[in-house]
Structure formats: structure tokens, C-alpha cells
Amino acid sequence: MTPPISYNLISKFRTELMGLAVIWIFLFHSKIYFPKSVLFTPLRILVSTGYGGVDIFFFLSGYGLMHHMLAKNSSCLSFYKSRFLKIYPSYFIASIVALGISFVIYNNVSIKEAVLVLTTVGFWTEHYMIYWFIPAIISFYLMYPFFYSYYRKYEISLLFLVVSVSILTCVLLVAADATHFIKLVSRIPVFVLGSHICYLCATGKGDVSRKELFINLVAFIFFVILVIVYLLTKQYWSSRDYGFAYYPFILGTLPVCLFAGIVLEKLSPILGSKTFKWLIPFLFLCGSASLEIYLVHIQIVFSLGEALPRLVPLSETKSAWLFYGHYIEYFLYFIVTLLLAHVLNKISAFIRLQLS
After folding, report:
1. What is the DSSP letter of 128?
2. Among 56, 136, 269, 303, which is most buried by a count of CB atoms within 10 Å?
3. How far apart are the first and last CA of the chain?
4. For residue range 160-216, what is the model confidence (pLDDT) as tens digits?
5. Residue 349: its H or E element
6. How far apart are CA 350 and CA 334, in angstroms?
7. By C-alpha distance, which of 91, 87, 64, 312 is closest to 191?
């Protein structure tokens, strides 16, 4: 008898899903060029919507936080400490290096700017940050013990309330011309949905019925349609950011994670063969350092790559070979990013060990 499909697949392949998400984000940040041919249209859509990997991060973060709270039932203070040590050492080191690179190359980093970045206050006060994701996830961490305490009482009612208030807040942010915060607020629904799915799994309600599977499939199809419609019409919204780029992922993140988990589960026997046995370990490798890959890539590796012609005089031939847009360069960027990310991951793990 075929075992039922379960949301537990998201937990089983959580690290691999993180790996897929960070690769998707890497493609988006890299802005890889594909020929303007119908054959390459799916790849262009995939790359141009890579910011959706951030939604997967938030969804899986909500899932992980609920799992942490249910398993350890830790105090609010110990929860904050564990979350702080989870992300801040990597963030601090990456930000120091990024600020140092900016100072050496452009000589335009002030003490005020450095303090705003390192404390994450800059995102809230001056709409400036090297990494906006960090202050966003920190704010989610800060509110999570309170969300958790009320969620245990009200469950689905609180979930609908939070999602509704988040969407309404996005509308008000547009009206107040404070669209800078939409990329944060629009991710709250997928974050709390991740927590809800984890709670279902923990309470033995994680099996997906045929009806629920059909609903997820419909949501996924509708999500794809919304994304395509947005991509075809986004030029009409270019004068003002209404957040339309983010809204489809409120609907699509759960089915994307579920179906990706189903695919990984079904393909596991095939991926265990000699030909493909590297794939799941590679996704796990990327997922285990996903935060560090995000931190290292665009601000450190890319800033150095863009500044290379200014630092090292190159011949016209070599400059053309390294020109932004070549696939070899993207591959080298990713390899260097992966290596530096795992070094940063190991250093941060050592710091956590010393402080815990």
C-alpha cells in the first residue's frame, strides 16, 4: 500500500529545500542572461522570480521555530539567545567584510553607516541596509514567542487574523508611500503558515488528503498564472512599487515546498544511483550554509567581481572573458561563494559554541 503524502516531507527535506531556495536566490541576484527565444522562456521566468526563494526561507523558518518551541518549550530569554547566536555571528562578520570592501574601493563608509548596518537599525530608520533579510527575520524572532503563546489558544483563527492584517498593512504602506517595508510585511503570511504546517505535523494532522492535495495543486497553478501575468504587465507598475511581485508567493510557497518534497521523495531511489548520487548531498550542502551563501554572495563576491577591473588592470580580451553576464563567471561566482560561505559557517559555529 502506498504511504499517504504528508507535510512531514517538508521537514524531511527541509535543508534540501533551503538549498533549492538559496540557489534560486543566487540566480535572481546574478541576473543571468538567457537568449531571447521561446525555448528559454521558462528559464527567464525562473531567474526573474528568484526572490521567491526568500519566501521559502521565511516559510521554513516559521516551520523550524514552531518545531523548536514544541520540542524544547524554552523560555523567552533562552529562545532569543539561541536565535541571536544562530544568525548574528555570520551577519556581523559578513557585514564587517562588506563594509571594509566598500571603504577600500569607494571610500564612502561612515561610522554612522557602519553602526546602522551592524545594529540592523538602518533598515527601520533610513531605509538602508546591506542585507534587508536580517532585520526582517530578527523582527519575526522578536515577535515569535508572543505569536506562539496565542497560537496555542486560537490556532487557525489567529492564522487568518495575522494573514489578513499583513495584507491590509501592505495596502496601507502603499498609501503611505512606505513601500520599502512591503518586502518584509508581505512575507509574514508565509512565515506563520510555515508554523501552522509544522504544528499540524507535530499533532498528527500532517497527512495530506486527496482534497488537500487538489487544493494545493490548484493553488500552485493559480500561483504560476499570477506570476506570469505579473511578469507580462510589470512595466505598468514600474513607477511605483505596489508589492505585486510578492503577493503570488503568499499563495504559492506552501505548494512549491510540498511538491518539491514529493519530487525529492519519489526521486530518491533514482538520485541514489551513481549518476545522480551527488544531487541531494549537494542540495544539503547548500542548504546547511544557506544563510551564509546569501550573506557572502551579492555583497562580498559580487562587489569584488564588479570592482576587479578597477583593482587589477586587464587586457581587453580578459575583460571580455570576465564581463558580467558570462556563464563561466556565474559558475565561478557560485563556487567561490559556496567555499567562503562554508568557511563563514564554520567560524560562526565555533563562535556559537564558545558563547552557548
Report:
1. -
2. 56
3. 46
4. 999 999 999 988 888 777 778 888 999 999 999 999 999 999 999 989 988 999 999
5. helix 327-355
6. 24
7. 64
